[in-house]
Sequence to fold (1475 residues):
Amino acid sequence: MKLTKAQYDEIAQFLGHVQPTRQSLRKLKEKFPSQSQSTLLSIFSQEYQKQIKRTHAKHHTAEAIETYYQRYLNGVMKNAAAPILLELANEVDFAPSLMARIVLERFLQEKEQAIPSKTLINSMLRDPSQIPDGVLANQVYQCTVNDCCYGPLVDCIKHAIGHEHEVLLREMLLEKNLSFIAEDQLRAKGYDKTPDFILEVPVALAVEGHIIHWIESKASFGDESSHQAYLQDQFWSYWNRFGPGLVIYWYGFIEELDCHRERGILLKDCFPTDIVTLRHSMAQ
Amino acid sequence: GSKCFEQLLLQHPSVAAGGIHRQIGDRSWQISDFSIRISCFSIHLVSLSLLQKDFVPFLLNFLREQTSQILTNGPSTPAKTPNSKAPGSQRTGSERRAGHATSSRVQLFSQRTSASLGSFITATPDALPARRGRRKGGSSVSASGRQVARDLGRSLAEEEDGKNDSASWSGGRRKRSEVPLVSARSPPSQLNLNNLEEFPPMGAASGWTNKPSRRINPTPVSAERPLSKPKMCFTSTPVSQSPAARFSSGSSLEAFTAVQEGNLTSVISNSLQEEREMLKKERYSLRISLDPGTPTKPSYTRSASLPAESHLVTCANPTKVSCKKQLECLAQLYSSCIAENLVPNIFLELFFVLQLLTSKGTSTAEDGDSDLEDNERSEGKQHFRSVHNCVYFAVQVLDYQIISRLEKGMLKLLAENERIASFSPTLHERLRQAYESSTAKVSLLLPCSVQSVSFQPETDNRSNFPSDRAFHIFKKQRDIFYELLREWEDNHEKTGWDFERVLGNKIRAMMAHLSATCNHSHFARLFQKQLIQMCKGPIGGGASWGDTPDQDVLNMLGSDNLSRLKRLQERFVVPQSIRGPCPPPSFPGCQQFFRDFILSAGSYQFNQHLMDSLCLKILELNGLTLVEHEHSDGEADMDEQDEKKRFTVVLLSLRLLAKFLGFLVFLPYRTVEQPTRDLQDSAVALRNQTLPVLDVLKLLRQSIRDQRSILTIPWIVEYLSLVDHIAPFLDYYRKVFCLLLLMVLSEDKEMSFLNKLLILAVLGWLFQVASSFPSFSHQDSVPLVDQQLLYTCCPYLGELRKLLASFVAGNGAKNGGFIRKITPTAAESLAPKTSVTQRKLQVELEQAFFHNQPPSLRRTVEFVAERVGSNCVKHIKATLVAELVQRAEVMLQEKVKEEDANHDKLLEEVCTHLYEEGAQALIKGREFCKKKGPEAVRVLLPEETSAAVLNSAEDIAVELATEKACGWLSANIAALIKREVKATFSRMLKVPGLLLPGEDALESRRDCPPDCQHCAPFPSQIINEIKDVLCVAVGPRDEDEVIDCVWLECLLGRLSQTLRCRKFMCPTSEQQLAKCTVELASLLVSDRVPLSLGIKPPEKSSERLRVKNNPTYGLLKLLLSVWKEDFGTPVPVQLMFSKKNIGYLAEVQQREWDLFLFMLNGLVEHELMRTGEVESCLRSLKELPWPSVSN
Fold:
């Protein structure tokens, strides 16, 4: 679903300081009933991430970490079953999963008398059972489960969504009899940058009259910042190597961002229906 | 002079913005003007016998001057004749008056020019028979200009021999002048360096346009240059069989004498005024001699002839033409000069004629203005003062020479010209017929939709880089490069955007990165490919109109594209779009980016690699076989068309690459100002020791020998157009220039006119623009050419035409044509070693076989061999090598697991093992070629080919292909295997998943059930929903928040469906689902999930009493079943025994331990855990601290 910049801004503004909980999501859906849930969730997630990026540093000062840790210790001392960490995160406007990470890191540091490795932390966040302290394990798990923007569960869901849309796209290509080289094959051949699909025989879109050499599937909403980042890291790189191509933002995008069509980066929110193929290959 | 430039600047503001390069170009114009002037006085003293060569410049100047009033369409056409920038203040009254009319447009004719045409004309008939008795009854107007040129050359050479070494071209600074003898005697000190107009300060020069404002030569009339005076001595030199001979009637000895006197006087004279008077007298007398009835006055003024509404196109009327006879004579004369290559630049003259044809003029000027008539009478005949006359003349010229040999496309354009139609119905009719019989086809040179260079794994993947780092850095550099390119595209036309300021630092940062990783060669290749990609198009790649004049010729020659002709037409007709026929070398459109990039990068390494890359590509393209066509009935047409297209593409690419190579090669030597003679001498001495980057001389010679100069000369011209001031004086480049001049002077009527025209046009342009190339008209420089060279080359020159004719005209080289070289294939033959003589015999037989076959047969065989050989290697890679690598993978996986082995050693072991099997590649390769070669040959050769010929062709193709493929394989197979195995191995080590036992991977790759519709919920959806359940269970939650038991059951049912359909499942999703469901189970058994019972009918769970009361049992059973039946990955059920999850349990009341026990039983029953495992898990629980136990 394409949104105009104005429509998008309205949603983004509403999201101002919403906490990343299921309760907030529910409110969002009520407020914008006409938008699809996935689109709203995607926008919400992106907006929240922007907010977190802005405030990230402030939560990682030594003082802040110490404060959070002490508050956690005091809290669980009083009532170990209470959602101490989750509430702390909400109180200071920080992602619960990230708050869990801060406290866990601090906890391990004290316990091991050394700075724990990232892999260890990540592994414990993924599986809190590994956390040597039962209470902290519960608190951490509560945080990661409740966080709808960060954390291993969310990451996994995002990954799954991405994969599913790639599969969908692949199905559509097969259905249209368009032969393609998929990302893994490209990687095996040693390509340095690999879109999801390179069309072995390029196609054109009838309405726009654009040629397409590659298709990239994005199971998210295309907002300004993510699109810019994708252009920089991926789309232009594909263009640089393979020529013009198509990006499908399955959850929609801001219309105004589709401004590189002429040069060869076309945006769509669904699989195009007006594909024109080279006649030779049609005949076969 | 500067007024001229200003005017041009006004007309073409776009060129005013100049970079360094342009500035240099401007400066060199002045300099060359200066040198011309030197040469022009020198000439005078050399030898009277040489002076007939002045006739052509004279004629050209005459025409330019005569037409200057009328030509308001487009820039003035320069003529390459001596030029003056004598400041107006030094002029006398009469000079000023005469000069005024012309100063802003075609200005700058020497006094000598205005002296008289008649003097030449009249002088001729007397001199002609005296010198040459050869003239055959005036049969042909265009009899032999070549002869003239040769004679000239010889006599000049003799002159040279007779005098001293100073005439040699290598004699230092003075070499620049046409006839160095005298310039040596007229030292630079005679020049007024303080003359601002001759030597303007740099600031002034920079403001100039890059327009060549090479105007025709006013002879300088200043006291400092006493030798510069009209050269009127044509006593001893006949104009040979010049068409001028026809004008015998007007012969006048008086005129001749007068001229001589004038000359002598001016030599002696130190007084400007005296000289002026002399010239006036001279002119007067000459006019009388030619046209006694019409006393003349200095010309009318510009203001009188150009009314304000000069933009209105006058309707040319044939009935208003005056002095027809003179015009006809002039046309004949002029046509002959063109036909005999006596003009410096044939294209320029063509341009001039078309200018006349399309001239606008004014209506007032010609309709019997009495004042003007008076003026005319008193000052002299202005043959070209009306549009009618100009058009008449142009049509005459077109009718005579040029047009009869022009290409159809051009004729078409001319056929549409209504002036031609009205002035010469016969010419029009001829044009129309040509137009109709033309088989013009629309060119298929479509703009490429892809603007970037495609990534090719063969050259661009990791194996082409020394290290991962280099590979990744280059990945970044590629992207940065395109980013810069896009930025440039978007912004460079905006005002105030400065390449260096905006992109300079980015480019240099990029260069630094490239240097750090030695990636220059990769980048240079990318750069060069992108250059071709963007700029190979006919108009320099950009949207802007920045093509060179020869481009027009090319367009005329190569393609009949109507639209292009239209464009060409527009360029002739629309004043704003005309840049003149001789722009200096430039980098139009996108080329600008590449040039500025090179300049901003300022990287020695990059430049060197880029030169390497350009040289390689140039050699490759230059070596492409131009195929002659079998001149059979109709089908050759198609080939011809294709071939033309291919030729055009190749030629354009070559010219582009060569221009950039020239730019790079001469860049270090580029100076803003002309070096002093001392500096030049030492520079020449120094640089004579170095070798050229690309041996253009050798290539040029080769091209002449192989009769393919039509391809080579145009790009060499581009290359040379960028020479610095010194380069033309180097021994090496001198030879190149001389050889090129020979090409101009050589005359061979058999040569395709168009090919010749192309060569003439590009060379004409080169001699016109080369920044410091001595700007002589080519006749002059003949004596500088090595005699040996002349005679060695000439025999070939005739042969050259045959190839060229066969190429463009498609005549086919019936009697042998040129010899194609077979591209060398395999380095080493794998054929059984036969004796040398036998092999030689075989080769000869093969050659013999091809000799009498149509050339397409050979082409086909070579092509098939090349492709099949290459495909064979690819096939072996994809099959045998891939297979071996796969086996290696298995071996490595086992070995890596069993021991903590040394990886390198392990790799070596495995590879050695595989090498033996790699030897099979040769056998398989041979099989492949043997199978595929004949197939391809059969498909490609005509159906009617005889069986014997077919078999032989097949055999040769197979042999060549095998040689190529197996040669490569035998040399490289081991390295290839090793490389591939190594890459796989490092991938294996990097991705831990690959090291996992294979069974798991296999199992997760299960297929969907047979009748699966793939409509199960997406895994992400299920994970999300389970997550929500976990959220509620873990809390915090609202007081009344519950989970509907039925809904949860349903969710687990959908989970089951999702797991069964494998289509959208990926390992991480499945693992996450497994983990989440175990967590859910843990929460269920510890009664953490607030279930609502809903309206559940009791009988449904009637299995056991407690189950009846608690729906959790049903959910647990469902979970157990899903774990057992639907998951492809192992479910981490042991997580239920983790401290965290047991912690949940520890907090609950007795009843729920039943659920836990139920779960344990279920796990064992469903074979998800063995009893022993459960026991051991339970035992380990005892070791945990049990805070709640103490309660």
Observations:
- The two ends of chain B are 111 Å apart (CA to CA).
